[in-house]
Automatic annotation (TrEMBL):
Catalyzes the stereoinversion of LL-2,6-diaminopimelate (L,L-DAP) to meso-diaminopimelate (meso-DAP), a precursor of L-lysine and an essential component of the bacterial peptidoglycan. The record marks H167, E219 as: Could be important to modulate the pK values of the two catalytic cysteine residues. SUPFAM superfamilies: Diaminopimelate epimerase-like. This is Diaminopimelate epimerase. Its EC number is 5.1.1.7. One of its GO terms (cellular component) is cytosol. It comes from Domibacillus iocasae.
Length: 328
């Protein structure tokens, strides 16, 4: 069969976008898993952190499903939702839509630019859950906020939050960022283990100054990525809870693929939602020719490059120079 695709990214977190809805593709669950494994492979495939599927929704403007490069499905993806949202906003000719995701219906809006020539999209990150059973994470506690977990490290303090995909967040110094601890802990928690049996996204965060932070994430189902939207949202929330940043205020979040903005909304004492604002950039598009019974034997045709990546590159270079001074 022939599959139309767009390769794009949010903060360098790159995805293959496939519109099942408009093209009338009828994939099985096994097909989606196999396509993710075959197409996301960086050696033998197109290469991406995941596949974002655009689907019809019975009650919202569209539905998103996101599969990691290891074939597992995630309940949410912030950077992917911006890319998906941009595609659906353009398709429907709207400025604001609601997208059905695995566990919530979330708004996506056009929101000016994040840098000269780089349009921005604002997506809602919600629900925000703190019970460890929501991740799930088992350490004999109900919640984890800025505490050490002896099984992980004697000195690094972690907070756990599900948005609703699971995140473990450590806020600390440049030395913590430079250490090998994130890799060691994330690999342990994403392998066979009793603490996070479903795996977890692990972020190390350095607050640069009030209103600005750096986040690096080891993603469940992928490994280290340039950026993880839900992780940057959850990390910004943690810095607000720690009193390092303010609620209801735009906060610049630098990552290895560029920069986004996050705003944390406190609705009641313990109820939050987060807005994630950043790019949804197309890199190239094409047609994949494959047999679904052997998806790794695919070929790509009619590949066409989008020019818009050039403007994003300038944002990325500026972010890289900033991080070289303030973090690395
Ligand atoms: N990169 C995403 C998150 C993708 C899913 C994640 N790896 C998981 O398994 O929870 C983002 O931008 O939020």
């Amino acid at each position: 069969m022939k599959i139309q695709f767009i390769k794009g990214h949010g903060s360098g977190n790159d995805f293959i976008l496939i519109d099942e809805w408009t093209n009338g593709y009828t994939f099985t669950e096994e097909n989606r898993r196999d396509l993710s494994l075959a197409l996301c492979d960086r050696e033998t495939g197109i290469g991406a952190d995941g596949i974002v599927f655009v689907m019809e929704s019975s009650h919202s403007d569209a539905k998103m499903r996101i599969f990691n490069s290891d074939g597992s499905e995630a309940s949410m993806c912030g950077n992917g939702l911006r890319l998906h949202g941009r595609y659906v906003l353009d398709k429907l000719g709207k400025n604001e839509i609601v997208v059905e995701t695995n566990k919530a219906d979330l708004y996506v809006k056009r929101d000016g630019t994040i840098y000269e020539g780089v349009p921005a999209y604002r997506v809602e990150i919600s629900p925000v859950l703190f019970n460890l059973s929501d991740l799930p994470m088992t350490i004999g506690k109900e919640r984890l906020f800025n505490e050490t977990v002896p099984a992980l490290s004697d000195s690094i303090r972690f907070s756990a939050v599900a948005v609703p995909n699971p995140h473990l967040i450590a806020v600390g110094s440049r030395e913590m960022i430079a250490s090998n601890e994130q890799k060691r802990i994330a690999e342990m928690l994403n392998g066979e283990n009793n603490i996070t049996p479903d795996g977890v996204n692990v972020s190390f965060v350095h607050p640069i100054e009030k209103g600005t932070l750096y986040v690096r994430t080891f993603e469940r189902g992928v490994g280290f990525t340039n950026a993880c939207g839900t992780a940057m949202s959850a990390s910004t929330l943690t810095t607000c809870q720690l009193g390092l940043n303010d609620y209801e205020t735009p906060i610049d979040v630098f990552n290895n693929g560029g920069k986004v903005r996050c705003e944390v909304h406190q609705h009641e004492a313990d109820r939050y939602s987060i807005d994630l604002i950043g790019n949804g950039t197309y890199m190239f598009e094409g047609t994949i020719q494959l047999d679904l019974s052997a998806p790794d034997q695919f070929t790509v045709h009619n590949q066409k490059t989008f020019e818009e990546q050039a403007a994003y590159e300038k944002l990325r270079e500026e972010a890289e120079s900033y991080l070289a001074v303030h973090v690395f």
